[in-house]
Amino acid sequence: MSEFKQVLEIEKKYQKTISNANSKSEKKISKTVEDLRLKEDVMKKDLTDELSSDLSKLKSDLLKQGEMQVELSKQNAEKIIKTANVDDAVTHLVEEFKNGF
User: Fold this and answer.
1) CA triplet 43, 46, 49: central angle to 5 degrees?
2) pTM of this prediction?
3) Which pLDDT does position 3 carry in this prediction?
4) Between the CA of residue 33 and those of 18, 30, 39, 43, what are the distances in Å?
């Protein structure tokens, strides 16, 4: 009987050791999972911030580019108007000369 009790004691110690090891493993796994979730959240935030910053810069660049295009269009329009006015003036003077003033 005492041999049987010894076997039971050994079995209990073995089960307890396994239980403790499993518990420690589960705690480590849970901690690792939590750490990975935190890292993932930080990476998502960093990526979101970086993309937002890039988007803001692109919007700003496009706005500046658009403003420059508008300014160039205005300048071209002014040149066309001046050229048209000069053409009109020359045409008018030619008509005046033809009509003898």
Assistant:
1) 150
2) 0.54
3) 87
4) 22, 5, 10, 15
